[in-house]
Write a structure and sequence with these properties.
Length: 395
């Protein structure tokens, strides 16, 4: 805004925790020794290697504990995207003797959607199931999409853009009844809501370190015992033969500690975030005319706020918020540079012009009540200013 003295702004409010989070001090502390003193290759048999292996094994236990799994079922990857790729491509090729049909939804992360599109070019058939106006997938729509050739289903747990919590447990029951491998992407869920592989009835589950205050470049795939997955990276017998390559020991150790802390802090932190989330939603909807909440009003992640504001563009709001020291996004971080509206909002039936005016604010450990108040007081004048200049404003 032209009348803002940016140099005078002191407050910095980061509301993009669904894009990435800062590494917690406790996580960094356990990682540091594995960059130097405990630098060994975890596959080596000497004491340096054994020292590194101990760090990896302990991390595997911590990750497994967070999601109610067995440590032997945890496969470390370079992040959520690789884990999604391994889950989909690995299962598709391991199961192709049984069929070639995959079911997913229109509101998945692009790590799923683009992988499915690639598999279609390789001869697999994919059904993309829709959702309702809240971004909620109906389990019966999934059931109706099943064919005798269906070998894999993938439905995300917590929607990364609008925050809707999907009925993964119910969908998992359907998959189990039909003997179909079921995968869920839970990248946005751990540390916010309970995640348990048995409660969700899943065979494969993806999680990522940098969404839960761990380091970037590391994630994990849960593979239920007995589930056949074809490795996508070959070259060694690392990670039960499913992911070749020398383990990123410092990153894995950091992921393990982040998982431990996420599980320990979740009850109190989730409740705190839900209060702040609701206050932010209420503040925006009551102070900015013609603004709407995107996603389910109740079944949503405790840290997610996604709104659409008529007659303004999301990109313009983001730039003006940034000038005022507020970091947010207009969708998922992987697509925020795109001029196209969110594929999630479009799948929910939102008109293009409304989808272009979306804003995602995701809260985290550093978010305070004062931050929420500041955002509400700041966003209103920004919207008013943009609407005065907007060609979309009503006569």
């Amino acid at each position: 805004m032209n009348n803002v003295d940016c140099s005078a702004i002191q407050r910095r409010v980061y509301l993009d925790h669904s894009a990435t989070t800062p590494v917690r001090a406790e996580v960094l502390a356990v990682m540091i020794p594995y960059f130097s003193a405990a630098f060994g290759n975890a596959s080596s048999v000497h004491r340096w290697g054994k020292e590194a292996r101990m760090g990896v094994d302990l991390a595997r236990e911590k990750v497994a504990h967070l999601i109610g799994a067995n440590p032997s079922e945890i496969i470390f990857t370079s992040g959520g995207t690789e884990a999604d790729n391994l889950a989909l491509r690995g299962t598709a090729y391991a199961q192709k003797g049984k069929g070639n049909h995959i079911i997913t939804t229109k509101i998945e992360h692009h790590a799923i959607l683009h992988t499915c599109e690639s598999l279609e070019r390789e001869g697999f058939e994919v059904t993309y199931v829709g959702c309702d106006q809240y971004g909620m997938v109906d389990p019966e729509d999934i059931r109706a999409a099943i064919t005798p050739k269906t070998i894999l289903m993938s439905v995300m747990h917590g929607q990364n853009e609008v925050g809707t919590i999907e009925p993964v447990g119910e969908i998992g029951k359907i998959a189990k009844e039909r003997g179909i491998v079921f995968h869920t992407d839970t990248v946005q869920s751990p540390g916010k809501i309970p995640v348990n592989v048995d409660d969700l009835n899943v065979d494969l589950l993806t999680l990522s370190s940098h969404k839960i205050y761990g380091p970037k470049g590391v994630g994990a795939l849960y593979v239920r015992k007995g589930t056949r997955v074809a490795p996508q990276a070959t070259g060694g017998a690392h990670e039960r033969g499913l992911r070749a390559g020398t383990e990123n020991v410092p990153g894995i150790v950091g992921l393990g500690e982040a998982c431990y802390l996420a599980g320990k802090d979740m009850p109190d932190e989730s409740a705190r975030l839900a209060v702040l989330r609701d206050n932010l939603i209420q503040g925006i909807l009551t102070t900015i005319p013609e603004s709407i909440l995107n996603g389910h009003p109740v079944q949503r992640l405790p840290h997610n706020v996604n709104v659409s504001i008529k007659y303004v563009e999301g990109e313009s709001m983001l730039l003006n918020l940034d000038l005022m020291g507020i970091g947010a996004s207009s969708g998922s971080a992987c697509t925020s540079g795109s001029l196209e509206p969110s594929h999630v909002l479009l799948a929910m039936g939102m008109p293009h012009e409304m989808a272009h005016g979306s804003l995602r604010m995701t809260l985290g450990r550093s978010t305070t009540a004062e931050d929420v108040d500041y955002v509400v007081k700041t966003l209103g004048p920004i919207v008013s200013h943009l609407r005065e200049m907007s060609v979309f404003t009503k006569p």
